[in-house]
Design a protein that fits this description.
Layout: H1 2-11, H2 22-38, E1 40-41, H3 42-47, H4 53-71, E2 83-85, E3 93-100, E4 109-111, E5 115-117, E6 120-122, H5 125-138, E7 142-149, E8 166-167, H6 175-190, H7 197-216, H8 221-252, H9 257-281, H10 289-293, H11 297-307, H12 310-319, H13 324-335, H14 339-348
Parallel strand pairs: 2-8
Antiparallel strand pairs: 1-2, 3-6, 3-7, 4-5
Helix pairs in contact: 4-6, 6-7, 7-11, 7-12, 8-9, 8-11, 12-13
């Protein structure tokens, strides 16, 4: 039984701490198993007369996108996203991230099988916030962030349990956003590298963008219009975040701590004023308010993990003739390199 629990623990992306932490160990395993037990096959949901028309439509969309991911993007054809679970909460997990008050460097937590990553996930929001408070008290020089995550990947290792299910936390997304999420999470099953969050997340983000662009060519006009509106706001917000990260990096390169913190204050003020201007342009759209309200080094660093290497992956996709199979093979070659060499080779497109 002990080996079974450890195996389950190693399979979870939210993971079990490599150091002894029974409480975290328990919530990781039990939280995932509760989700697995809540999931039923999409066919069962579609055959159930009590399934609402709205949910029925979204499940049908998800199955279409799942097939598209396999046939058009070369993503894995397995049990993932063939079942659905209503979690009756607003997120699948809540991630805790931390960074120094004068650096965009995520604190690392290490997990069995998965290596070290720049976040720590909890199935219960209160537990995530309690952990963040404890870290804040123990290490007051760190800035902490807690944010909801609609889905996570078990890297294909739990397909014998039914795979990663569709969840109520994202099934209601507009079709284009649902496509991006499914493509992103399936990409983690193609390539995952220990101890390199930026490489993993940037690769998956590149796949979601490239796949999303290919999906748009087949989507309805209404779906493309909804996607364009949502994506315009996302790109504008990410551009503001990148500008702020650039300003913070300049600030944190200053030799004197007082100078660093003064320049940081100016950069953060620029972010807040820029965000206010965006909201005016968006006619008050408040979808990024929760993130902006707690914006700090930890959240900016976490976001950078999803953006930093995306242009290099997109360039690699072009180099490989816009062929997904060749692209994945090239990424697998990179994944076998040492971390520093991997990044250098990707950026230089020489490998």
């Amino acid at each position: 039984m002990r080996r079974v629990w450890l195996a389950l623990c190693a399979l979870l992306l939210v993971g079990c701490s490599a150091t002894l932490d029974p409480g975290y160990y328990w919530q990781s395993v039990s939280g995932h198993l509760q989700m697995v037990r809540a999931a039923r096959s999409v066919d069962d949901w579609l055959a159930d007369a009590q399934t609402s028309a709205a949910l029925r439509l979204k499940l049908q969309q998800a199955q279409h996108l799942r097939r598209f991911a396999v046939t058009e993007l070369g993503l894995p054809d397995n049990a993932s996203y063939t079942r659905y679970a209503d979690l009756k909460r607003r997120a699948a997990v809540w991630n805790v991230v931390a960074a120094p008050d004068d650096a965009l460097q995520l604190k690392q937590w290490c997990f069995l099988a998965l290596g070290c990553v720049g976040y720590r996930g909890y199935f219960d929001e209160a537990e995530a916030r309690a952990f963040a408070d404890a870290v804040r008290q123990a290490e007051p020089a760190l800035e902490l962030g807690v944010y909801p995550v609609p889905a996570y990947s078990t890297l294909g290792w739990t397909n014998w349990m039914g795979g990663d299910p569709l969840l109520s936390t994202f099934i209601g997304y507009p079709e284009g956003e649902l496509a991006r999420l499914i493509f992103h999470e399936l990409a983690h099953q193609v390539v995952y590298v220990r101890d390199d969050t930026v490489f993993n997340e940037s690769f998956a983000t590149a796949v979601e963008r490239l796949g999303g662009a290919r999906w748009q060519a087949t989507a309805s006009e209404a779906a493309r219009t909804d996607y364009a509106r949502f994506d315009e706001r996302r790109q504008q917000f990410r551009a503001l975040a990148r500008q702020t990260r650039d300003a913070l990096r300049v600030a944190y390169a200053l030799p004197d701590r007082t100078q660093r913190l003064t320049a940081k204050h100016a950069a953060m003020a620029g972010f807040r004023s820029g965000y206010d201007a965006l909201k005016v342009h968006w006619n008050g759209f408040a979808g990024y308010d929760a993130w902006a309200l707690q914006a700090n080094n930890a959240l900016f660093a976490a976001q950078a993990a999803y953006d930093e290497l995306v242009p290099a992956f997109e360039a690699l996709f072009e180099r490989e003739g816009r062929d997904f199979a060749r692209f994945y093979d090239a990424v697998r070659v990179l994944a076998r390199l040492p971390k520093d060499e991997r990044r250098s080779a990707l950026l230089a497109q020489r490998f």
